[in-house]
Amino acid sequence: MEIHDMDINTKHIKKYAVCLRGSGSGYFGESGSGFLFAPRESNSVYIFTVLHVVIHTLTRIGNNLIVDGDDCHFECRGTEIEYCTLYQELEEEYLAQRTEKEIKEIVKKIDEEVSSSQNQERNKDVAVLRIPKSKFKNDDVFGREFYCIGEEELSDDFPFIGFGYPGGKNFMLELKGESRKWNKRDQLRDCQAMGMGQDFVDQMKGFSGTGLVTDYQGRLIFSGLVVSCDSFEKHQCFRAVGTSEIILKMKEKGWEIPDVFGNGAPPEDFLDRVSFFQEDLKYMELSVRQDLKRTFVEIERENKPTDLAKAEAFYDIPKCTGERIACPIYWKGRFWILYIYRAIRDLMGSNDSVNINGQELKIEYICTEGNGKAEISTVVASAIRRNILGHQIKGNCILIWQSEENPDRRIFHKKKFKNIVESIAEGNMGGTDGTPEKAGYDLLSGEMRTKNYGIFHIKYLLEKLEECHTMEEADKKVREILRDVWE
User: Fold this and answer.
1) CA separation for the pair 364, 462 (Å, rounded)
2) Which of 225, 232, 369, 477 has the most CB atoms in a 10 Å sphere around its CB?
3) Is 212 left (phi over 0), alpha (psi -120 to 50) or beta?
4) pLDDT (average), residues 36-40
5) pLDDT by residue (tens digit) across 232-271?
């Protein structure tokens, strides 16, 4: 995804950005930014931010907190705010037993820790505030929620966009850039901003707590918060803290938490995402393209992804960059399978099997690789390693394969499929460091003495459909492909 692709989400993301600062001229904390999480049915709104911006208000040794945004302006007393941090010393029950002097010492110690570039626990510089939703005069702005995701599930180089309030200004500015690396040891993400000037460090002041958002498989993901930008920074680099640890703390407190991407949420309004089929159809004859579009509309009317998911296998064949159940690429392939069923109605037997030359064969769909390699040896080796072929997917089966990348080879007839499996078992293809896939192979080897597999990629199907001038020809071509893979 190019960075400019995030621009279409700008208007929406702005609604969730707020400025946080203390009230009164004597305020001795820092001003900064925050990112809102507003569950639809809740009486509360949650503000994700960094701890060093709000620690004085939370411990009630500072002034009240002023919250400013596009659609809000209000002041919160410390007693109106519940909070969640990663510091046990800041637990409200613990602080209630401490004197004012002791609390100030705790705050001073934590302030020094989170501001030190040498501190090994800078990832703890994060906080979530829970405030009454009634503070927001116009709560209908919260029309769409964001997802979260495990930090290691995102690639190192995804684009992000955020909006913050640098320098305590009363207007927001855009922060755009790319992730560079997730540091597992430090639990921080290295990021690079774009379009900032030479006085980068000064420009970043006040962006602390800015929520960074990316688009992942058609979903907006709240990936983290700007946490630090040290005086020695070069090349417009800064660090962001992830969301996973603080969300776990929220869950422990019994608070509502953002939806986690991949926890069983198939895409809604699937066919509205026309782009997922435009690429597939663009080289087909106009009449075929139009008929297929109508067919997909009928398929969605009869088979919603949310309904299909209840009986879907989602075979665990890596490498996938996310959860298949929530992936539009996965469901695009699934719709092609449903079209195939329509095209071969007269060949269909019991239990969704297809009759090829008098033999009842199962059709199974596998989706693999995400943005990674799309090689037949990798796919089959992975399926063997996880005991999917022979165990979950029995023989006498035609595999229809989908991947985001375009593979070099798009069809393997059943005889060639056996050769692939034997090569993998001998360590020639797809094994881990060249080692044989013995455990999975032994099971599959016994299966393939009496049964067979054939496999073709959906890209092979598309190539053949591009030769057709009518839907009658297209349906006939599907039958030919199934017979061909089983020759």
Assistant:
1) 18
2) 225
3) beta
4) 87
5) 666 788 989 999 999 999 999 999 998 877 665 677 777 7
